[in-house]
Design brief:
alpha+beta, two-stranded parallel ribbon, 2 strands, 26% helix, 10% strand
């Protein structure tokens, strides 16, 4: 799936108002503030930066992180 397709899927989500593309992988609270975003959302897998540290730790500590459950396909049913 390319980025354009991913953006369209996210835009179609019920609670999504706006999608920002090109944000640094290690997003910061400052970036959220600049974009006037309330939260950074990510799947329930931990996103680690090049140092092996959770790239969302500061956003989590600020209470501005929302986790969603990843979809798991069951190929046996």
């Amino acid at each position: 799936m390319n980025m354009e397709e991913r953006v369209e899927i996210i835009k179609s989500c019920k609670w999504v108002d706006e999608v920002n593309v090109g944000i640094p992988y290690d997003c910061t609270v400052e970036v959220l503030n600049q974009l006037k975003c309330h939260y950074n959302a990510h799947g329930d897998d931990i996103a680690k930066n090049a140092d092996g540290i959770d790239s969302n730790i500061l956003i989590k500590e600020a209470g501005r992180f929302r986790m969603f459950k990843r979809t798991v396909r069951n190929f046996y049913h």
